[in-house]
Amino acid sequence: MILNVPGAEPPAPASPVCSAKGCRADAVWVLAWNNPKLHTPERRKTWLACEEHRDHLSKFLGVRGFLKDVVLLTEWESPERESPERPPAS
Q1: Count of CB atoms within 10 A of residue 20's CB?
Q2: Dihedral angle computed from the Cα positions of residues 20, 83, 39 and 76, in that order, rounded to the nearest 10 degrees
Q3: How many whole angstroms separate alpha carbon 84 and alpha carbon 46?
Q4: What DSSP string runs through 43-82?
Q5: Quick one: DSSP state of residue 1?
Q6: Residuewise pLDDT in 10s, the chain (90 residues)
Q7: What is the distance between the alpha carbons of residues 74 and 90, in angstroms, rounded to a whole number?
Q8: Residue 70: beta bridge partners?
Q9: Do residues 72 and 28 lie in contact, with contact meaning Cβ atoms separated by under 8 Å?
Q10: Measured CA angle at 82 (ends 90, 22), to 5 deg
Q11: Four-residue CA torsion sign, 55, 56, 57, 61
Q12: Cα separation of 15 and 9, whole Å?
């Protein structure tokens, strides 16, 4: 049983999960992006995607000009290993 304690961090998933809202599927892809108005050109933020949500999340970032790269999770290497973030609610 997991207790919901205010201020406590949720338990980390056993394996990386998709960043799409409500999706708990295993991540297969890393979507590397940055917002040029906020980040330096070399900075890469990351979202994770399952097969089902790869296209949707890529388009969301792409139409904003943020998407820089899509790489298999197993091949991803980043010098600044950041935790993937959840996209904004649509």
Answers
A1: 22
A2: -90
A3: 5
A4: --EEEEE-TTTHHHHHHHHHHTT-EEEEEEGGG---TT-P
A5: -
A6: 444 556 655 555 578 999 999 999 999 999 999 999 998 989 999 999 999 999 999 999 999 999 999 999 999 864 555 555 666 655
A7: 28
A8: 31
A9: yes
A10: 30
A11: positive
A12: 17
Amino acid at 68: K
Amino acid code (one letter) for 22:
G
Cβ atoms of residues 25 and 18 within 8 Å: yes
Q: How does DSSP classify residue 15?
A: S
Both tokens of residue 48? 């994770």
> What one-letter code names the amino acid at 12?
A
